[in-house]
Amino acid sequence: MFLEIITPDKKLFSGEVKSILLPGSDGKFGILDKHAPIISSLKKGTLKIIDTQEQKQTFEIKGGVVEMLDNKVIILAE
Question: Per the structure, how many domains does the chain have?
């Protein structure tokens, strides 16, 4: 799936990933390839991704929104 992480200042990440772990407002949740469409708010915490080469990356966010549609994930984060 394709992921973009965007902040008010810059684009933090853009590329293909295998999985995403997000700090949702009601608790942590994951998104995998071909996940059902979803929109959710995010709270302060650590966003973790695993790319197609099994490389792990983490990003600290203060909150935001995630949208998954047509195997594309957009995260608008603070």
Answer: 1
